[in-house]
């Protein structure tokens, strides 16, 4: 699963304590939503050694386009 995170303040999300706190909060969110069964969450480390990377504007525009297409498909499934 791919997750997009945004922050309101500048922080180093690749800092181990920050990434661990984010992961812990995600786990708590699943429990709060009463997700049943055994599950585990972990970060996938990229070849450069980081977990996260900054999304440039071009990637962001492409992602927004994919999200728009997906929502249109859900709104008009037979089209």
UniProtKB/TrEMBL annotation:
Spell out the Acidic residues composition-biased ranges.
Answer: 56-65
Q: Where is the composition biased (Basic and acidic residues)?
A: 66-79
Q: Which domain of life does the protein's organism represent?
A: Eukaryota
Q: Where is this region: Disordered?
A: 56-79
- What this protein is called in its record is Uncharacterized protein
- Species source reads Albula glossodonta
Q: What is the lineage of its organism?
A: Eukaryota, Metazoa, Chordata, Craniata, Vertebrata
């Amino acid at each position: 699963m791919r997750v997009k995170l945004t922050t309101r303040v500048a922080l180093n999300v690749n800092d181990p304590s920050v990434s661990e706190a984010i992961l812990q909060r995600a786990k708590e969110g699943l429990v709060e939503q009463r997700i049943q069964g055994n599950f585990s969450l972990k970060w996938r480390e990229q070849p450069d050694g980081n977990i996260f990377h900054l999304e440039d504007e071009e990637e962001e525009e492409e992602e927004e386009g994919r999200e728009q297409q997906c929502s249109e498909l859900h709104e008009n499934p037979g089209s």
